[in-house]
User: What shape does this take?
Amino acid sequence: MLRPVGRVATTIVVVLLVAACTSSSSSSSAQVGSQGPIASSPPPSPTPSPDATTEPTGTAIAAIEHATGPTDVVLRYDIGFVDFGICELCGGWGSFEPGPEFTLFGDGTVIVRNGLGELPPADRPIIRAQPFRIAQLDDDQVQSLLRFAIGEGGLGNASEQYVSKSTDTDDASSAAAFVIRAAGLDKRVEMFGPVHPFSGLRDHLLYFAERSGIPTEVWVTDRYWGLLIEASSWIEVEVVPDPPETAIVAWPWDGIPPWVVGTAMNPIDENQRRVLSRAESSVLGLS
Assistant: This one.
């Protein structure tokens, strides 16, 4: 599968997946680490704004307590929370999982990716998912979002697990999970299958960037997963084009030998992924 160091067959493709970032405010500290099946359907009808409260005018609303650190996860929504590679190219052991779709951190940083939105156009052989976007919420906006999630969104009295009839709980593509750590709650709520009572909260979080009116910008990580996989099956179905002139291309990294499981020189995990810096990943010429 691999040629000697310095060269590699084109049936091997490097896939870059977002791994983590370090930031605060405009670059707030965060970790992302998932995407289920993507539907290109139009956004569902808006859910009630969490800014609107039902308390009578003048009624004091108690502040919801939560951790305030830039790496403290306060609210998260994660589709297909098993983080692997691309199943068609990897022998069926995973699907494309770039990270949790929505995370609110303690300092008010939000990182969100609309996994239900329409895919960006493909630039063969480059296939992109929706980008992550980052926003900074003030204290009132954080409080409003948490009140909605815990109250109308249903997480306050949610059970730990919801399983639709005849759904395989080992199938990560059917899974999603909420995490809430606020108001004395430290809860993980898992859903398997399409039937659960949290569609309103899910849609509100996934379409947060479009609906909230809060300015967002594309989030750029400082680290990526590099994954070596065989591309033969995708070349056969013309998702990835067949190399027009040669079946061998030069290995792009002078200081990194091709990595395989068990190679002590490369810090990889069991799925043959290696963390690449932004500089290391830039040699591939991807925007």
Remarks:
- Residues 1-15, 17-55, 83-95 have pLDDT under 50 and may be disordered.
- The CA atoms of residues 126 and 263 lie 28 Å apart.
